[in-house]
Write a structure and sequence with these properties.
- This protein is about 40% helix and about 15% strand.
- It is of the alpha/beta class and about 475 residues long.
- α2 crosses α3, α5 (about 190-200) packs parallel to α6 and α6 (about 210-225) runs antiparallel to α14 (about 405-420).
- The chain is globular, with a radius of gyration of 22 Å.
Length: about 475
């Protein structure tokens, strides 16, 4: 659905993309032979994952390659002036912080499009007006009248309103629109279709939506050109920067840090009695409820291990998780000569967002720096896999590949909602997810995957997780 009382500039359809290629930076490990070009910008219509199927089809036999490479820069729309940016999930945590960064750097970035689910219409309208975005996309069609009214109240008489896209495929349409960079800050696997659309349209993708890579890894790898994806997760942005210090052949292992969440140091028996309020009390980061509970179970860290494997093509047995309560070191890379390069800043997502939007340039004062004149303590602890089995389970599903990660992610989303509703105890989240993964078994198609496969697996996993949580709730009643 498109509602455009007086659209400004370009509409949602992407023009023919200019010829573009990955440009090697003059840093260690740069390999100009990995440059690639694709002159056309094909994209299809998409709604909630389906029916978006890239023309490349199945991905059997796709050679292993690094999705995110700090030695390469993918520049689909080279030129002077601010980068045109589309922000998906603009009213969420990532989106609001990205907008703060953009507003402080008008010479570097210009927002052309915003998307949101539709739960915070007034904020979305305010963002559109302040940024003078030309297109606003909202997933819920029922809030369009409210959105139009809010926009009309902010824009002056005769001032053209932004074009409105509405419906479950609105973010996907916007992701393929005319822009330099698309920041995907949507939460959940519904972010897959916009991720694929942005890649197919030739946009640089600043990826904060880890789920789209988790559930659709082979699909993403089939479309992404070298250097086209810049990770925005704090851990993967840290690895991205640390990897710039050497070549892939120099890497011994990746070390992903975890704050430990609100339950660091507690045993599995202790966790049997925690409440929803306890799980939402994260000691370091302010995030949405689902991500916060995923941090409490460390499912978030398990997803990040899979994501690190897919982004950097490092085997699972060379990706380690350590607990670092202060969350100062966001991740580390250990090289073969014994050196470890760590990326450290005070906890603030505007730093990783600035890497995603600005790379290969750094954005001055994007986030606070350390005050090295003050004493501080940085601690590191091994992960308690008995109390927090999610990381090892994530490694397992990542190695199974195919639809297994989609099953893991979908079952977890259902179990988190059941926990929030009081139908499942905290330990029951991972117990139920493990059972769903076990029942799913080994995917018969291996790494050959289509969007239809992902949808089918997700639907089955959600249904089965609901059945199991209902049985648990009944048994507890």
């Amino acid at each position: 659905m498109s509602d455009s009382p007086a659209p400004r500039g370009h509409g949602p359809e992407a023009p023919s993309a200019p010829r573009r290629q990955a440009r090697a930076l003059a840093t260690p490990g740069a390999d100009p032979s990995t440059s690639s070009t694709r002159a056309d910008a094909r994209h299809g219509e998409s709604t909630h994952l389906a029916p978006y199927d890239p023309p490349s089809g199945r991905t059997t036999g796709l050679p292993a390659r690094t999705l995110a490479d700090p030695h390469l820069v993918y520049d689909p729309l080279p030129g002077d002036g601010p980068k045109d940016v589309v922000i998906l999930g603009s009213t969420g945590s990532i989106g609001t912080q990205a907008i703060d960064l953009v507003l402080r750097n008008p010479d570097r970035f210009r927002v052309t499009g915003l998307s949101a689910n539709g739960g915070r219409v007034a904020l979305l309208a305010e963002q559109a007006h302040r940024l003078q975005a030309r297109t606003v996309a909202v997933a819920r069609e029922d809030v369009v009248p409210q959105l139009r009214e809010a926009l009309s109240g902010l824009y002056g008489t005769g001032e053209p309103l932004p074009e409105i896209l509405a419906g479950p495929d609105a973010a996907t349409q916007l992701a393929a629109s005319d822009a330099h960079t698309v920041l995907n800050g949507i939460t959940g696997s519904i972010g897959l279709a916009p991720t694929l659309a942005a890649l197919e349209a030739g946009r640089t993708l600043a990826l904060a939506n880890k789920e789209s890579l988790i559930v659709g890894g082979p699909l993403v790898k089939a479309l992404a050109e070298p250097g086209q994806i810049i990770p925005v997760d704090s851990e993967h942005a840290a690895l991205f920067q640390a990897l710039a210090s050497g070549t892939r052949a120099d890497v011994r292992k990746l070390v992903v840090t975890a704050s430990g969440g609100p339950f660091r140091g507690r045993t599995k028996a202790d966790l049997a009695r925690v409440s929803v309020e306890d799980a939402l009390a994260h000691p370091t980061w302010a995030m949405g409820p689902v991500i916060t509970i995923n941090s409490a179970t460390l499912v978030n860290k398990g997803l990040e291990v899979i994501e690190a494997h897919l982004l950097y093509d490092i085997p699972f047995d060379r990706i380690e998780v350590v607990v670092h309560p202060q969350s100062y070191v966001h991740s580390m890379v250990e090289f073969t000569d014994g050196s470890t390069i760590a990326q450290a800043t005070p906890p603030d997502m505007r730093g990783p967002i600035a890497i995603g939007l600005g790379w290969p340039e750094r954005v001055p004062d994007a986030a606070p720096a350390f005050d090295w004149s003050k004493a501080s303590t940085w601690e590191f602890f091994p992960l308690d896999n008995d109390a927090f089995p999610s990381v090892n389970l994530a490694r397992h599903v990542g190695q199974l590949a195919g639809t297994a990660p989609a099953v893991f992610n979908a079952a977890n989303e259902e179990c988190v909602e059941a926990f929030r509703a009081g139908a499942l105890p905290f330990n029951g989240i991972m117990e139920t997810v493990t059972r769903v993964v076990d029942e799913h078994g080994t995917p018969s198609k291996g790494t050959s995957l289509t969007v239809a496969d992902v949808l089918e697996a997700e639907t089955w996993a959600r249904t089965r997780a609901r059945e199991l949580t209902a049985q648990t709730a009944e048994a507890r009643a």
